[in-house]
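Quick one, T. Sequence first:
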Amino acid sequence: MATQILPVPAPPRGGAARPSRRRGDGRAAMVYLLPAAILLLAVLAYPIYQLVLISFYDYGQAQAAGRAPLEFIGFDNYTKLLGETQFWTVLAKTVGFAGVCVVGSLLVGTTLAVLASRVRALPRMLLFIAALGAWATPALAGSYIWLFLFDTDFGLVNEVLSGLGFESMAKHSWTFDTYSAFGLVAAEVIWCSFPFVMITMYAGIKAIPEEVLEAATLDGASWTRIATSVMLPILRPVLMIATIQSIIWDFKVFTQIYVMTNGGGLAGRNLVLNVYAYQEAFAGADYGLGAAIGVVMTLLLLSITTLYVRSQKREAGLL
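Structure tokens:
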């Protein structure tokens, strides 16, 4: 029997055009993003350049007023900063405080996003209105509201707790103790920032195809299994964005700490890096040292963000 050899079909001509089409899409994306990149460069590059430049000079009140010449001192401000015990103490407190705020915002926001995706329209609308109200409240106003609620003499929280039988809370000061004050400020920061996480995660949850969740349900997977093995991998990019934003915002907290602890607490016990930089630059009239703290904060945020993004990409198999 003769064997018939069938001709091999030639590859479609359009296949060779795909790489060039992708390159064309990339060029188009760069053109569209160019105006925003130029704007960001103009807004960010010059201030960062000035911040780095000032950190290399002995720049105090006399130099700012023009009564004394600028003196280039190189890395002396950084050497002085890194040699101070207070800087490392404030840095440790900042990292711990920001970590609590980030984890709290992600937990509260994600939990409420899941809840919003499983309730009816009216409760969901009320939940979003309450969350957006917290998000829209200015940090200064929110700080004073929380201070009034937890006031030693007239605070509603102390009144409620003492009425429930906790007599020791009748005149309790929430801002006197270091950890109590940090906890109060962290609660206010979480209250302000969880709506962003909630809305971001809710949008990601609603973007998951219903067929995927239905298939997992038909396979007998529990809701916990669906959330951890199905939804979480799909939501990883959204969660990464929410986490990065939370890290940046919570690491740079200034208003809440400054207002609620009266400038950093007794003897600076509740200082974070942003308030510490403000005190050194403006209260201490050492703008060079304050600029050095700002540069160190920027480098720390870039390092933390880069490490987090790389770890997430490595887990997703993109590296």
